Amino acid sequence: MTRTLDLNCDMGESFGAYTVGDDAAMLELVSTANIACGFHAGDPVVMRRTIELARKNGVAVGAHPSFADLYGFGRRRISGENPADLETQLIYQIIAMRGMCDLAGHPMTHVKTHGALGNMAAVDADLAALCVRAVAAVDPALVYVSLPYSQTYAAAEKAGLRVACEIYADRTYTDQGELTPRSQDGAVIHDPTQSLDQVLEMVVNGVIPTTGGQKLPVEPATLCVHGDTPGAVTMARTLRKALTENSVTIAAFA
Q1: What region, left, alpha or beta, does residue 48 occupy, with left being phi > 0 and alpha being psi -120 to 50 degrees?
Q2: Dihedral sign, CA of 86, 120, 66, 147?
Q3: pLDDT at 235
Q4: Residue 19: which residues within 8 A CB-CB, separation 6 or more?
Q5: Residue 190 scores a pLDDT above 90
Q6: How far apart are CA 43 and CA 49, in angstroms?
Q7: Are 239 and 225 in contact (CB under 8 A)?
């Protein structure tokens, strides 16, 4: 049976004189790009350049907002932030991305929270609701990209947002369906064969293999490869080829 799957990548994470990932090569492989909005990585010049390159490649684009954490690449868990302030920060990032998209003539389709913010919201109902409110405040027609088995997925559905269920090619999962914390061994998959086996299990067989040996049902809409992971382009190329060979059509969800 032929099915369609989006292949997305977190990118636009270079900053000033620093280069992170090979966005140009990745944009020849993926169908959707989640672009950093300057709070964990990226800057206005990188945002604009990445959007324009995505448009030329026919790749859909969305905002990838985060905690205000350039020093920690958005992967430090931040608590105690005033909820109203955090919501405003997310709105600011999403609007900045939308403005750059308008400038490039390439509409923004979705929002996906980054790093620690996304992981914390996945298990915190109040934080999940805050993230969803920020998206809806800018444009309730935007798609919310979310992990299955998460508070964010439930909050987005409750708010009436369209949700794209996301799975990861280069991350392992706990028995609760959460991403294994990066602080633990084996959280990030570097072996292309292991990555491919996991992806085919999720996409073709419809189950998430967990570190505890469980198989959690899943109906993925989009598959993510992290642009900053070493070997990410090779991994994306291998995955795309294998998925196509298994009768999966790669196309943007939005």
Answers
A1: alpha
A2: negative
A3: 86
A4: none
A5: no
A6: 10
A7: yes
Q: Contacts by 199-208 with C-beta closer than 8 Å and gap 24+? A: 199/167, 199/169, 199/223, 199/239, 199/242, 199/243, 200/242, 200/243, 200/246, 202/167, 203/3, 203/5, 203/167, 203/243, 203/246, 203/248, 204/246, 204/248, 208/148, 208/167, 208/173, 208/177
What is the structure's pLDDT at 21?
87
Q: How far is CA 186 from the centre of its chain?
A: 20
Pick from 44, 9, 39, 2: which is nearest to 23 by CA?
9
> 16-53, pLDDT tens digit by residue?
999 998 999 999 999 999 999 999 999 999 999 999 99
Tally the domains of the chain: 1
pTM of the model: 0.93
If you ran DSSP here, which 8-state letter would residue 118 be given?
H
Q: What is the pLDDT of residues 112-171, one digit of tens each?
A: 999 999 999 999 999 999 999 999 999 999 999 999 999 999 999 999 999 999 999 889
Q: Which domain holds residue 162?
A: 3-250
Hey, which residues does 94 pair with through a beta bridge? none
Q: Which pair of structure tokens corresponds to residue 54?
A: 């995505």
Residue type, 184: Q
